[in-house]
Design a protein that fits this description.
Length: 170
């Protein structure tokens, strides 16, 4: 395969992932409680908007703090950042995994949904104060790898909603 054909396929794959991310986000936006309020959001601002902290995908010119001589396009790394009852949730379109073998190899499972469930008053156990800053190791340690793989059906998205709600309603 020549480079041009490969890059076309790569771009089509990225577009398909972005389309799937937006479909999942739109599905989450359609979820409302019995009073008609959004179930998932970043903050209760009284509007019908999905308020999020970031763009939901990696930088196109990632340079690892300037250590890469040629920047890398991380825009295929995608996530949805939301909140349920004040608890931060990150739905990743690629799950992080630590192999349980002796080597503890790190893996990124592309197109497998991973979820990080935050808590409203999470502490880093160092100073006893809330620490909402997610660290690299936290992502690998806290992400729950699910069985859902892209593309998600409507039934699977509904299962994901129920899974998230049940996590906090235990």
């Amino acid at each position: 395969m020549n480079k041009e054909d490969f890059l076309k396929i790569k771009e089509a794959y990225k577009s398909a992932r972005l389309e799937e991310k937006n479909r999942i986000k739109d599905f989450l936006l359609s979820k409302r409680d019995s009073d008609g309020n959004l179930i998932f959001l970043k903050e209760k601002d009284g509007t019908n908007t999905f308020v999020r902290a970031g763009r939901g995908y990696g930088k196109k010119d990632y340079s690892s703090g300037g250590t890469l001589s040629r920047p890398y396009d991380l825009s295929n790394h995608m996530w949805i950042d939301l909140s349920y009852k004040g608890n931060d949730i990150l739905i990743s379109l690629q799950s992080f995994d630590i192999d349980p073998n002796n080597e503890k190899n790190l893996h990124v499972l592309y197109d497998r949904i991973g979820i990080i469930f935050g808590k409203n008053e999470e502490s880093d156990n160092k100073d006893g104060k809330p620490d909402n800053e997610l660290k690299v190791s936290d992502a690998f340690l806290k992400m729950e790898t699910t069985n859902w793989e892209l593309p998600l059906s409507e039934v699977e998205m509904e299962e994901m909603v129920d899974y998230i709600i049940s996590h906090y309603e235990k």
